[in-house]
Each structure stands twice: as structure tokens, then as C-alpha cells.
What does this fold into?
Amino acid sequence: MKIICVGRNYVEHIEELNNNKPDSPVLFLKPETSLIHKKQPFFIPSFSNEIHHEIEIIVQINRLGKSIATQYSHKYYDKIGLGIDFTARDLQLKLKNKGMPWEKSKAFDGSALIGSWVNKNEIDDLDNIDFYLKKNEKIVQRGNTSNMLWKIDELVSEISNFFTLKIGDVIFTGTPAGVGKVNENDILVGFLNKKECFSIKIK
Ligand code: ZN
It folds into this structure.
């Protein structure tokens, strides 16, 4: 499987990192080795002093697809969830400033957390999902899919023009504002429409 991530999909997050609003979705990939296995903690890697949490709505692909028209996108996924795109922000800034690819800061081992899944048909409105992240019991990030620049169906279509989507692939749909640093012993807990989807310790 592969993980396709979307960058800059929420205006307030674009502003907090002083980025420009893109004309089309910013896409990047994480390999299968970036996955955090069930019940494992997140280990702060030695190459970064500034790991950020990015909570994101995630989508699981259940059908092979290429060049999917937006109107048919909904047939290609059946599960919605919540994940964290862990980012080595210090390293990413260095790479961005040099015009180099982000992979080392975004796709490293353990950089992708995938929480428990919810069946798509259990969610009333995919364009109005509320989600938030608690760090040590305090809400630090909150988002709603109504604020996405590109909605889930548009993302599935756009991504499939570049990368054939296969069963089991996961899309990270971008983070809302409120990204911030994690420290040793932090506990991160994610909620989707008030339902807890993951809990992870930072080590
Ligand atoms: Zn992200």
C-alpha cells in the first residue's frame, strides 16, 4: 500500500506556515515503512528537534482506480478515519528553502499514524466532519472538512490522475491550523465527530 498526502488544504493552516494558496492540491507520498504499528508509540527521531503533529481526516481506497471523475470518486472509498502526519518541521523548512523534496521530513519511519476506521455510510455528511486533537487532555487542533479547499471527492479524482489508486491505499487529506511541537511523554488523542479514533504516546 501507499499513502498519498495532501498539503495546504486548509486556509488557516496555509497562513500559519506563511505559505501561498496553491492552484491545485499539493501532493506527496509516504511509503509503507512510515506506518506506526498498532499500540506502538511515536519515537522522536534523532535528526529532528521539532516534530509537529498534523491531525488529518484519512480515507481508505477499496477499489482500483485511475483518472477517476469527481462524480464517481465516492465509489472508490468506503472508510473514513483520523491520522497524524508527523512532520520534522525544522528539516522540512531547510529542505523547502533549498527547493529540495520534503521526503526526509515527511516520509520517515513512523511518520504516519492511522487510527480506527469508520464506515463511510455511518457518517451523515462527509463535507461536515468535525475532528480534533487533544495533547495531554487539552485540545490543540480542531478542524471541519467543510473548510477544505478541495473536498474528499475532488482529492480522489485529482490524485488518481497522477497515481493509480489501489485497494488499501490511504489518503491523508491535509491538516487544519494548530500544528505544534510534540515532546517526550506527550499523549495525543484524536476524535472524529466526538468518537475517539486513536491514542498515542510520544517517546
Ligand atoms: Zn499533513
